[in-house]
TrEMBL record, chains A, B:
Function: Phosphatase that hydrolyzes imidodiphosphate, 3-phosphohistidine and 6-phospholysine. Has broad substrate specificity and can also hydrolyze inorganic diphosphate, but with lower efficiency.
The name this protein goes by in its record: Phospholysine phosphohistidine inorganic pyrophosphate phosphatase
Family: Belongs to the HAD-like hydrolase superfamily.
Main location: cytoplasm
Phylogenetic lineage: Eukaryota, Metazoa, Spiralia, Lophotrochozoa, Mollusca
Gene source species: Candidula unifasciata
Pfam families: Hydrolase_6, Hydrolase_like
Catalytic reaction list: diphosphate + H2O = 2 phosphate + H(+)
An annotated GO cellular component: nucleus
Amino acid sequence: MPNTYSYCGRIIKGVVLDITGVLKESGPNGGTAINGSIDAINRLYESGLQFRFCTNETTVTRHHLVNQLRRLGFTIEEDKVFSPIPAVCQILKERNLRPHLLVHKDSLPDFKDVDKNDPNCVVIGDATNEFSYDNLNKAFRCLMEIEQPVLFSLGSGRYYQEDGELVLDVGPYMKALEYATDVKAEVVGKPSLSFFTAVLKDMNVLPNEAVMVGDDIVSDIGGAQACGLAGVLVRTGKFRSRDESHPDVKPDDIVDNLAQFVDKLLQHSL
Amino acid sequence: MPNTYSYCGRIIKGVVLDITGVLKESGPNGGTAINGSIDAINRLYESGLQFRFCTNETTVTRHHLVNQLRRLGFTIEEDKVFSPIPAVCQILKERNLRPHLLVHKDSLPDFKDVDKNDPNCVVIGDATNEFSYDNLNKAFRCLMEIEQPVLFSLGSGRYYQEDGELVLDVGPYMKALEYATDVKAEVVGKPSLSFFTAVLKDMNVLPNEAVMVGDDIVSDIGGAQACGLAGVLVRTGKFRSRDESHPDVKPDDIVDNLAQFVDKLLQHSL
């Protein structure tokens, strides 16, 4: 029987953790571990609580991401990591869809078992430099030629920080293709309900028994709260002080970092 | 006293003509003249009617565009051509704005007199291959760094046909930057009211005394009608048969081409 804890006025049985901005800061060679996060994860393992990692990262394979985190010192298993690519591959299989891919080249191995001949849908991820005019035109024309066009977007983030600079995420390109083609994208990943639901189902906990910890006030906190989870904002990663007074999203708690979250969560065992 | 004609139940004193898709089809080396259009323009000159050319073309300078049309056989003066770049340059001057430019390199000479140091706004045009991930990030970061960000989009078209293939226009990139930055773009060019107003003012005619001829059901016809002009759709250029039953826009008339429009317009002199 897993342990439970009292936090934010709830009985918490499951924890969902964003990766980039919570466990590590982004940067070259997988980034750097955030102070106290490695130990915080180890304490979660010892707590007996269920927890999963939930990321919209699509610039690398899940396997590579887990290896990066291990090299930084984290204890982490691949089957605890939920990311949009395995989720979309499952959807493609269920719906007999063959994608035209506009994704990061380093993520392509995760699509190796997917039939990509004669595409009848488009999948876009955080393709970074692959977002050329030419490649966006190819995805656009593919959608225009399909009789019943389907567009999957691996997340809908607006931007993130990379090597100290803001860079565009997949969301703006999703909006560009939506406008050009009049096709509404299906978002796979945070903040979609089906993505959060899959994570909760894997832990066998209900939304109101779970808490999401993230650095993205809209996608992590707002998204989790909309699905019934508590949402806790960390003051690391892409956090900016104006997020604390966001007009629409009020976090259930705001903490300095993951270590402080774990301190507070584990204070009240039930 | 210029002549007037009766058409579409109106007294017409001024004509506004789109260029690409009405005078010429797009293609390499400036494209090809549409059958009957050269003669139709000459008949408009002889009619005594006022007329202007109104284009969202921003991949070349206005001077170059006029030279292309002359080489195709058209009689056309540069001061009769209204395009977004001279319009935005005027706005930048009036509002003391210094742009970061994301535009086609062949259009840059039209910005030569504009102060581009220490930018306090962003101007995007139909930049085609210049719409790289890197260049879109630069425009994005510029908007994020400006205290009161202003984004000008030279038109808002979704796509157009080039060498037989559909290609993305500036509109999708406008939507991408709007989503990423939460800044609403100011559209300069068709279908903006200020753009049509400048054209009408130059002819000294009122909106209900004017007719716009174009191949874009939304931007040309819908845009002109929203500003009080009659809108006539030609079955050339990017016209598709489904445009005749567009859910929102009902043209005042639909003609096979510019020559047929001029035939019908000049039938009833007042």
